[in-house]
């Protein structure tokens, strides 16, 4: 009989327990299910393709109602609307690092290799072919603007230049207002309610946010197109209800 066997078994058991304990005490594990859905599910891909297909159909409708004496434009967010940044979020999660602190984001903007959200490029090429101006309005860092432009160019997206990529030198609302002085904005697309109107840029509970959505329900699916994002958002710490 190998007398070392009980010792080896004890070491393995303690190692397994330590790994389990570390995993249990990793508070960011709560993000895992949503992140898994966002990155790996076929359903999210179907939703993204479906949303962009619907956006294209609705854009055609909006074009028939535009003011003929004004130039037309769309405003589109970047992260989780055009760009899939989930590889960064997964790396942070594996290190038990809370990616919603955004302290790893700056390096990702400069050196990361995000993928395209399914359907985004086809939609943007369609918009470009309709001679509609595209503004990429994102809260990415102004300091990393050239890196973001390089990323968008690498992915082959249209109308990418310094004038059309508007990052955080001012609030999104002010950037939208600046655009509206010269263009008729016929559609906005984003993954967060704050991508559409300043009233959503609050720290109000989700119950209040839902009331605001109800008040603006006529704009969703017509002027405002929202993309699914289950990996992060203002809702992430909302309490679940059993009834």
UniProtKB/TrEMBL annotation:
Residues of the signal peptide: 1-21
UniProt keyword terms in alphabetical order: Lipoprotein, Signal
GO cellular component, one term: cell outer membrane
Cross-referenced InterPro entries: Acid_phosphat_B-like, HAD-like_sf, HAD_sf, Lipo_e_P4
CDD domains tied to this protein: HAD_CAP (cd07534)
Superkingdom in the source lineage: Bacteria
Gene3D superfamilies: HAD superfamily/HAD-like
PANTHER family membership: ACID PHOSPHATASE-LIKE PROTEIN
Protein name (record): 5'-nucleotidase, lipoprotein e(P4) family
